[in-house]
Amino acid sequence: MTAAALSAPRPRWWRSRTVRRFTRNKLAMVGVILILGLTLACFVGPYLLPFDELFIDLRARFAPPGTGAHIFGTDPLGRDIAARLFQAGQISLLVGFFAMLMSTVVGTVVGVVAGYTGGWLGAALMRVVDAFLSFPSIFLLLALAAFVNPSPIMITIIIAVTSWMEVARIVEAEVRSLRDRDFVMAARMLGLSKTQIMFRELLPNVIGPIIVAATLTVARAILLEAYISFLGYGIQPPLPSWGNMLNGAQQYLDKAPWLAIVPGVAITMAVAGFNFIGDGLRDALDARSDQR
Amino acid sequence: MIRYLLLRFWQSIVLLFIVSLIGFMVLNLAPGGPLSQYTLTPGMTKEALDRIAEQMGLNRPLPIQYLDWLWNMVQGDWGNSYRDGRPVLEVINRHLFATLLLMGSSTLISVVIGTWIGIRSALRAGTVFDYATTVAAMVALSIPTFWFGLIAIYTFSLWLGWLPAGNMYTVGNGSLGDYAIHLIMPSMVLALVNVAVWSRYMRSATLDVMSQDFVRTAKAKGLAPRRVLMKHIVGNALVPMITLAGLQLPTLLGGALVTETVFTWPGMGRLFLDGLGYNDYPVVMGLLMFSAILVLVGNLAADLLVALVDPRIRLD
Amino acid sequence: MTEATRFTPTRRQALLLMGAAGVTTLVPSLSGLGAARAQETPSGQIVVGFSQEPTVFNPHLLHIEVDEGVHYAVFDPLFDVDPEGNFYPLLATEVPTVENGGISADGLSWKVTLRDDVTWHDGTPFTAEDVKFTLELMVDPDFRSWRRTGHEHVQELTVVSPTEITWKMAKPFAPYASILASTFIVPKHAFDGVADKNEAPFNSAPIGTGAFKWKERVAGDHIELEANTEYFGDGPYLERLVLKYIPDLTVLYTQFKTGDIDVAGLQWITPDNYEEAQTLEGKEVQVVGTATFESLTFNMERPQFQDLKVRQALYHALDKQAIIDALYYGVPQPTETYMPKESFYYNADLPKHEYDPEKAKALLDEAGWAPGADGIREKDGVRLAFTNSTTSGNHLREQAQQFFQQSFKDIGVEMTISNLPPAVMWGDYWMLSQFDSVVVGLNTLTGPDPDTSDYFMSTSSAAKGGAGQNTWVYQNPEVDALLKQGGELVSPEERRPIYLKIQEIMRADLPFLPIFQYATIRGWKEGVTGYEANINNRIDTWNVRSWRWA
């Protein structure tokens, strides 16, 4: 991931080439299709199903997939799993998306500031980044989740809190490598303020790596949400999320394995989709990838 | 070298301090407290809980509690578990083996398989094998570990009945074979993600080495391809792998935690979840610190190892 | 099943309580116990699986139920309670009563005579000094005693002789007998020279008088106890007792199925496995009632719940039976009260709950709660909407909760689920009544004693500055008066009508909607003899001294 191709101040010319490289990447296209398909299913699907995701029918509990109109079967309360899956997808995708947004903003700001200013502030900021990176974030995430009120917004925030460091690190390295370039010097001589230089001049030049990191962060955030909700510390029922649909599935594993299989496949598809896209973007933005 | 070590040492101390501050704030600023789990014990009264909180010093101002904890910690006293009154380090130590066993065996599996896949797909870059393993690795990275564990339990324990669904050994049977059979599933599940990571890195490391002059020279000198491979490629590609091993430690530890929860494996992950469940703050703090130290030491060891293996890298 | 009854030589009419003036058959001293000592040598081992890990071995420190699994094996109280609610002596030669002169007629003076043939596991003889030490430890200001209730009234503790101890109560306190029945006597000499009793070595290597001696603990895995061959009473018959920690109920059941554990202990077999468990070869399974009742509990301070009609309507909207049958596989029994059916004080004549959504709607209409624009009823600016909380992670309860939510919605009441992690839930949120409503399983009794002052007395609300757990903030002067009266009487026969009346009032007032009385599914291997469930004491090992292999 070199910045050589990105460092020129006018980004427009590489754009089309990047897009072309991206669209030629089959895996990335599979990713795009997966994500578009899932998003469509989750946001439109509920309107097409004959069931409400909250409607309880104790007589219909544990119906295997394909029972009547229950294409994915029913859960221990007799609710339709397909309806829940799609509603859950909305939550999980939104949590993933907003956690990405938050952590990208925080990570970018920290990275740009640390990379450009350097000195004690930069060093201090990067030590904080290192601190967050130096314990398994899942420990921190669980410690946070176990003690806060688990609303979707809180869950989004704590996932963001444990996910911003990668972006910060990448951006810091990029900005540091750019800060003594000619165009920055020029901006400085023109009398632009620090803030203007950082966010008007430098930021557009590191946008590529940020997008890549952001895409991968969505994938990560979805995985994290799933895990903490699986353990019961995340999104709380009756609000469904892919993770909390799995919560309790272990108990019914031999009786109703579809409770575990269906949401897990959805999570894998979503995460794989974002990973494919992120990887495709990275290759597309990486000038060297033509040589490979 | 000494200067480098000193610098790293001081950086680590600062890091640990920040870690402890974050951890302490997270645990103590949240509502509820370590005693609330006893509320529903028959006969429990508010009076008793308040009194015990007072006796345990839980009512003191947080900065005082933190400084108290920090001061003891610096002196090697990590506090006592609220649950069984044993020193935190002793408690962690008792769960360490299980986690190390799991991490060790899964690392062994993932290094062996990952290296093989990585080199093979690098040597055959662009073939079906390369493409297939690339896709497989990306998919593997996308599967939630805990879910994969559930599916493995369903398949191999409930459906096929080949392997035990959890625990480290059968009660009353501590034989080596018994351990081994319990270890298979969790270590495989934990290895899945790591195989993907290792094979990806190995592939690009191998490609990097292959493109370098000395390999071409060696080929030109007419050395047998296999020897070229073994001597140069593997030797050189392994250097970044050591760094990777260090960097992967937090992920591996996190993965072990996740795996342990699914397989009721009696390691540090289990201890951490129990600690959270019982609000055993000293143990939770201890584990946060312990894992941070483990990661720092791991990274440092990786750096030193790289310096030893690769004469081109000097640490100063 | 029959083994343990040897400890309960009294008949049903001897029901309870010491001090019982009307009771003529005193629980006799179990001198037979001592005589039966020269029995067979202990042999074999039993592995009990627990889903929580016992970690607190000093029985007087703050602990959870599972810890008592060890306490009952290693220690003895002065006397204990059997499943029928009768006391039987252990370290005491007889249970003190008014009849035998152990308690004065006013209930204030106590005298307990002790066995002279008891030694601690380390060989030191057991004396009245140990009893004195224990009772003083409970109120030691520096000791983190988990319970002072009752003990705080004890004054003038006097060791008359090594086998006799006396004290005075500051006020008559009927539940004290039940409290003593779960107060394990600990050795004074183990704390000699120990500066901080909270950190005594004893706390991690307990020394008791019980049928089993402490052997070792493998943390996170199991605890091993070995037979105390010098035990003063009947038993033990087992050479070894292993308490195995299995942190997952599914695995606990699997290991019970495969025979890895001999007894499926605390948290027991989950209801969804009940049907299959009954068919298992070579396993015995039994459903046993417990003193814990599940309820939908209201914060009576909230304007939504001040109208009795609202509470009645919500009760009618609950389909209890559907929840019990579907979610709990019919294992627990529906109930109308907080008192377990097995209790002598259980009121069987309370009005039966009817599931009738139409009636619920009618009640609300009648009381003037009319549906608003969004279909949710309201009255005088108060929306009939509230939050409901419980511990997150309790799957069955969360499912029941969602079912309630739908049932209430059908009658125009909005219940929002807001579950919290245990640390938050059972802290101030619960204690200071910061909730609207809660689904909770509570045991409000003290062993077999029917006193519930800490829960229902109007002065027991922490939200109002009280020290108890009246988290409903339930205020009823009549109940207050009855509780006070009942706590001062000693005769079970005299106390009974009072507690029947309290249950009647609670059923009418509905500060909580009683749903069911919890039942647990016990399971043990065929051949395990002596295992018996005890409603007054949920932990499996309460009579482990008489367990054996057939």
Automatic annotation (TrEMBL), chain A:
Residues spanning the signal sequence: none
Bilayer topology term? Multi-pass membrane protein
> Residue ranges of the ABC transmembrane type-1 domain?
89-278
The record's listing under SUPFAM superfamilies reads: MetI-like (SSF161098)
Top-level lineage group: Bacteria
A Pfam family (short name) is BPD_transp_1
Is the keyword Transmembrane assigned to this protein? yes
Gene3D superfamilies on file = MetI-like
The biological processes this protein is annotated with in GO are: peptide transport; protein transport; transmembrane transport
Task: Show the stretches that span the lipid bilayer.
Answer: 27-49, 93-116, 128-147, 153-171, 206-236, 256-278
The cellular location(s) given in this protein's UniProt record come to: Cell membrane
CC per GO annotation: plasma membrane
Which keywords label this protein? Cell membrane, Membrane, Peptide transport, Protein transport, Transmembrane, Transmembrane helix, Transport
> Which CDD domains does this one have?
TM_PBP2
- Please report which protein family the annotation says this sequence is part of: Belongs to the binding-protein-dependent transport system permease family.
UniProt protein name: Peptide ABC transporter permease
Originating species: Cereibacter changlensis JA139
From TrEMBL, chain B:
Locate the transmembrane regions by residue number: 12-30, 96-119, 131-159, 179-198, 237-263, 283-309
Q: Which CDD domains does the entry mention?
A: TM_PBP2
Its record classes its membrane topology as: Multi-pass membrane protein
The UniProt entry lists the main location of this chain as membrane
Q: Name one Pfam family in it.
A: BPD_transp_1
- CC per GO annotation: plasma membrane
Subcellular localization is given as: Cell membrane
Question: Which residues belong to any copy of the ABC transmembrane type-1 domain?
Answer: 96-306
Q: Name one GO biological process term.
A: transmembrane transport
Print the keywords alphabetically: Cell membrane, Membrane, Transmembrane, Transmembrane helix, Transport
Keyword Cell membrane assigned to the entry: answer is yes
Q: Which residues form a coiled coil?
A: none
Q: What is the similarity comment for this entry?
A: Belongs to the binding-protein-dependent transport system permease family.
Identification of the protein by name: Diguanylate cyclase
Q: Which organism is it from?
A: Cereibacter changlensis JA139
Lineage of the organism: Bacteria, Pseudomonadati, Pseudomonadota, Alphaproteobacteria, Rhodobacterales
Automatic annotation (TrEMBL), chain C:
**Gene Ontology cellular component list:** ATP-binding cassette (ABC) transporter complex; outer membrane-bounded periplasmic space
Subcellular localization? Periplasm
A biological process (GO) of this protein is: peptide transport
Annotated GO MF terms: peptide transmembrane transporter activity
Q: Does the keyword Cytoplasm apply?
A: no
Report the Gene3D superfamilies cross-referenced here.
Answer: Dipeptide-binding Protein, Domain 1, Dipeptide-binding Protein, Domain 3, Periplasmic binding protein-like II
The UniProt entry, under PANTHER family, shows: D,D-DIPEPTIDE-BINDING PERIPLASMIC PROTEIN DDPA-RELATED (PTHR30290:SF38), PERIPLASMIC BINDING COMPONENT OF ABC TRANSPORTER (PTHR30290)
Task: Please report which protein family the annotation says this sequence is part of.
Answer: Belongs to the bacterial solute-binding protein 5 family.
**UniProt-recorded name of the protein:** ABC transporter substrate-binding protein
Q: Which organism is it from?
A: Cereibacter changlensis JA139
Q: What is the lineage of its organism?
A: Bacteria, Pseudomonadati, Pseudomonadota, Alphaproteobacteria, Rhodobacterales
